TrEMBL record:
Keywords for this protein: Cell outer membrane, Ion transport, Iron, Iron transport, Membrane, Receptor, Signal, TonB box, Transmembrane, Transmembrane beta strand, Transport
Protein name: TonB-dependent siderophore receptor
Residue span, Secretin/TonB short N-terminal domain: 95-146
Signal peptide positions on this chain: none
Subcellular location: Cell outer membrane
Region (Disordered): 1-26
UniProt record, GO biological process: siderophore transport
Record GO terms (molecular function): siderophore uptake transmembrane transporter activity; signaling receptor activity
Length: 862
């Protein structure tokens, strides 16, 4: 446990005047105290004010008649949170306040309506708050807690004043505050499943808080993960789920509050922040891809009311409405709710690619005692979206046609419906022990109605420029259940501090599919349900396919059946040891017992068709952090893990899991009390049992493939000056195939640029005339990448330039934000991904990035 140090509560100022309007921004909102080390410039200003202000008088009394301005003002301030009522009073009265955020946290003002002097109105605003005031200058009012008499047991007749300034060495904001402007976060749970400062964690972890998501108008993960080094966007199954590459290796699964969600598309409407943990994570999370994991932290119910409605609109008929409402359901605040909703209706720069989505996420939180908390949340997503195959390649390059061209046959959209329930509870025993338990269940149903270009076609040429399209009508369902139990505790032995974790989890996922597919049909059916499209002019070789006949066959004579079930149990332990306040040692391990069942057939699946593979594996992890100063950490780690392998052998059996080993060393820094953080890492990662062909031109799989990824990553994020925030990243990645049967040893892994970098910066004006105006810009670049394992198709490098502007101001107690973003300002043509096929075909699915696009936004918050 980190040693407690004095805490400083720094005063914040709300200003108003002819050319200024008070904003309920981070500096004027209730939140945890800023720290002295992290807010040196704010402390210096406060100290200067203390020197020049007149001596304090008893709370509620003014220093002079002039200071208490006797003129009448008309006020119309409704009942609302005290901090926003003070902002409205400052605006309507032309005054400014100085107060600590903790003073007004959770307090409500009855408001004031009518004609009053400033002092009369202030008394009504503060009624019942327990706060007093003094006029520091004619237009500056300092709030204080009212003086209280010393207890009767004291021999003194004097009075004492509460709420004096104390000192702290870490900037600690409430990460759940809707108005939090931070670009840096100091603590994360993903890396250790404990609330541990990142500076004491021997792994590379980066986070994207809510303000970044807002500034970049993020709708999905692909809109923000470009701000993390070593992360590249992947194909995502043609629009159906989020997929990314981390440190050279793809991952199809993501995590929600630390719980695995397989092949899932994340709507950011109820996401508070995104956490990315680099390197293997199997010690805590079981079977997982070794490049790293992506976890979203969802918005929690708050005891302080907050309401927001936002409308986005943009190029290609994009419209998105989001609603966020939270607050207490009981007078004592024990029971709180949150409700998030988003509706998306959007076109695309790709022909016939339109989507609409409704997303609803209600949640409840109950705290019957200070030590006990229960949480229940639900998510519902219904989406219609077509399959997109991208563009094929010819002679080592993507074909030279407009990036809008969609070679699939337009037809009805595919449909996805997802329902998720999450219940968890926790209880703290004393100050040092805590138990957590949770259950998550998800049901997803897909309806695929597609006529896409064939992914496995190997060749076409200028003389024969036709790609095959094959009908695919399939119904697919997936059920997922997870149960977990964690016990965390802190204690000391012989002066050595321990933070321990003991836990276990169970995960089960079952998928079933049934439908009609042309590739699985008879010769006569293939003739009926295959067609060919000319990639250069979209002409076809035969009339459109009879879709009604295909739907009839799906119902009456399906020919493609699939079943797969994955289940595993895991037990894990971890000990975080602290020596001499500077040395932090992490050690732990996890043992997994897994079972995989699967079967694929042209006939309904029988029990005798199901193949079963059982596996056990132990995943250790050790790490060390040396922190010579509070702002510098030097770390290293060693991790072994095993992950998913979704293929099957020539006998239709599941294949052995992949294994991975990672070595990593790095340096972390934390400046300005945690407002600016950085991480520099070197890693060496190997992955074995990768799917590969048993021989060239033979589409039979085995697990003898091996690859290695090594590189350097740099991430910097935070505030470097009042109002100036930035994110800067760089990644050098050398990812290559080291063993397989294709003759591809030494080739670069697909879709991994050797060099990638990004920069995003914004400045929010602090001056009175421009206060509330924010301007930002960003540049994202990647070097050339290979689109397939044979390195026969190259995707050129690219540079993309984005920018944005926003203006925030108050209308009474309501905060209004208008914003405008421009992406790909120079309208550069680039491809972010080539869907490299396992069988070594020339990449026929290469996906273009968006051209010049515009997005506007209007948001009301109360």
């Amino acid at each position: 446990m980190k040693k407690n140090k004095p805490v400083a509560s720094v005063k914040r100022t709300v200003t108003a005047g002819p050319h200024r309007q008070p904003l309920p921004l981070a500096d004027s909102l209730p939140r945890r105290e800023r720290t002295a080390a992290g807010t040196a410039r704010f402390v210096a200003v406060t100290a200067l004010l203390a020197l020049i202000l007149p001596p304090t008088v008893p709370a509620g009394e003014s220093t002079s008649a002039a200071a208490a301005e006797t003129g009448l003002h008309r006020f119309n301030i409704a009942r609302q949170p005290l901090y926003s009522a003070l902002g409205a009073l400052a605006e309507q009265g032309g005054i400014q306040f100085v107060y600590t955020a903790e003073m007004v946290k959770g307090l409500t003002s009855p408001g004031v309506t009518g004609q009053f002097t400033i002092e009369e109105a202030l008394k009504r605003i503060l009624e019942g708050s327990g706060l007093g005031y003094r006029f520091s200058r004619s237009h500056t009012i300092t709030l204080e807690r009212k003086a209280l008499p010393v207890s009767s047991g004291s021999n003194s007749g004097d009075t004492i004043t509460l709420g004096k300034v104390t000192v702290s060495d870490t900037a600690e904001y409430d990460q759940n505050d809707p108005y939090n402007k931070d670009y840096a976060v100091s603590n994360a749970t993903t890396a250790t499943k404990t609330d541990t400062p990142i500076m004491e964690t021997p792994v590379s972890i980066q986070m994207l808080p809510q303000q970044v998501l807002r500034d970049q108008q993020a709708i999905g993960l692909e809109n923000v993960l470009k701000n993390i080094s070593g992360v590249q966007q992947l194909w995502g199954g043609g629009n159906f789920y989020d997929s990314f590459i981390l440190r050279g290796f793809p991952t199809l699964e993501h995590f929600r509050n630390g719980v695995r969600l397989p092949e899932h598309a994340i709507d950011l409407a109820n996401v508070e922040r995104v956490e990315v943990l680099k390197g293997p994570s199997a010690m805590l999370y079981g079977r997982i891809d070794p490049g790293g994991m992506i976890s979203v932290v969802t918005k929690r119910p708050l005891a302080t009311p907050y309401y927001s409605i936002q409308q986005q609109f943009g190029s290609y008929d994009l419209y998105r409405t989001t609603v966020d409402a939270t607050g207490p359901l009981t007078d004592n605040g024990e029971l709180a709710y949150r409700f998030n909703l988003s509706y998306l209706d959007a076109g695309s720069f790709r022909d016939a690619v339109n989507r609409d989505r409704i997303f609803i996420a209600p949640s409840l939180s109950w705290r019957p005692t200070e030590d006990t908390e229960l949480n229940l949340s639900f998510e519902y997503r219904s989406e219609n979206v077509p399959y997109d195959s991208g563009l094929p390649a010819l002679n080592g390059r993507v074909i030279d046609v407009p990036i809008s061209r969609n070679l699939n046959q337009p037809m009805r959209q595919d449909h996805i419906e997802s329902k998720l329930v999450d219940f968890n509870w926790s209880h703290r025993f004393g100050e040092h022990w805590k138990i957590q338990n949770g259950v998550v269940a998800q049901v997803v149903d897909y309806e695929f109605r597609e006529l896409p270009t064939a992914e496995f076609q190997t060749r076409f040429s200028p003389e024969d420029p036709f790609l095959r399209r094959g009908l695919y009508f399939e119904d697919f369902s997936r059920d997922m259940h997870t149960v977990y139990l964690n016990l965390t505790g802190e204690f000391e032995t012989w002066g050595i501090r321990h933070k321990v974790l003991l836990g276990g989890d169970y995960y089960d996922k079952e998928t079933n599919s049934k439908g009609f597919a042309a590739f699985a049909g008879t010769d006569e059916q293939r003739e009926r349900f295959f067609t060919f499209v000319n990639v250069f002019d979209r002409s076809t070789l035969k009339p459109p396919i009879d879709l009604a006949a295909a739907e009839h066959l799906r119902k009456t004579a399906p020919n493609d059946f699939g079943f797969r079930e994955e289940s595993w149990y895991g037990l894990y332990f971890q000990d975080q040891i602290t020596l001499w306040e500077k040395l932090h040692i992490l050690g732990g391990g996890r043992h997994d017992w897994t079972r995989v069942k699967n079967a694929f057939s042209n006939q309904p699946i029988q029990d005798s068709d199901i193949n079963i593979v059982n596996t056990e594996f132990f995943s250790p992890r050790v790490g060390i952090v040396y922190q010579p100063w509070s702002w510098l950490s030097i770390y290293g780690n060693f991790v072994e893990s095993f992950g998913l392998n979704n293929g099957r052998s020539e006998n239709n059996k599941p294949l052995d899991p992949e294994t991975a080993t990672n070595y990593e060393a790095g340096i972390k820094t934390e400046w300005f009390g945690g407002k600016l953080v950085s991480n520099l890492a070197y890693y060496h990662l190997t992955k074995e049992n990768i799917l590969t062909r048993k021989a060239v031109d033979v589409p039979i799989l085995s697990t003898i493939g091996k690859a290695r990824s090594q590189g350097i990553e740099l991430d910097i994020a935070g505030e470097v000056y009042d109002g100036l925030s930035l994110i800067a990243t760089y990644a050098y990645t050398d990812a290559r195939i080291t063993e397989n049967n294709d003759g591809n040893e030494g080739n670069r892994l697909p879709n991994v640029p050797e060099h990638a970098a990004s920069f995003w910066g914004k400045y929010t004006f602090q001056q009175n005339e421009l206060r509330g105006l924010s301007l930002g810009t960003g540049v994202y670049l990647a070097s050339a990448r290979q689109a397939d394992t044979g390195n026969t198709v190259t995707l050129p490098g690219y540079v993309r330039w984005d920018a944005y502007a926003a203006y925030t101001f108050n209308i009474g107690a309501t905060r209004l934000t208008t914003q405008f973003n421009v992406n790909n300002i120079l309208d550069k043509r680039y491809f972010f991904n080539g869907d490299a096929q396992l069988f070594g075909a020339t990449a026929n699915n290469n996906f273009p990035g968006e051209p010049l696009t515009f997005m506007g936004l209007v948001r009301l918050e109360y």
